[in-house]
Amino acid sequence: xxxxxxxxxxxxxxxxxxxxxxxxxxxxxxxxxxxxxxxxxxxxxxxxxxxxxxxxxxxxxxxxxxxxxxxxxxxxxxxxxxxxxxxxxxxxxxxxxxxxxxxxxxxxxxxxxxxxxxxxxxxxxxxxxxxxxxxxxxxxxxxxxxxxxxxxxxxxxxxx
Length: 160
Prior knowledge:
By secondary structure, the chain is of the alpha+beta class.
């Protein structure tokens, strides 16, 4: 039993050293629910090209050298998921298109949804609706320095 503990300590130090030496590309901060475009190197025969894969991040898992993330998109009515190692040399770039408003870290439930139900609301739109929706007040400052407070109300329908 004592031998196993010493072996585990030495393995932990090797893994810590390995994880510390990884100098991966600087990828943008993204989380589950964000729409991203992952550009990766694809090798076909003796040729190499870059392929873009745009979809929603449904999960990030692991840490250190074994970290990975899963991206899902629907193409021609068929759901396609790809799992990318975060520190892969085949990833050229990751671009975050929009930040999604979700309350989960893993979005596996999206696999069972179709159409509009599978959409994720943009976080900026959600915040704008929360702050600037009906009944919200906004203050506007004119060029001459006057400050006006405007209260938003629902538009009334008029019959002609």
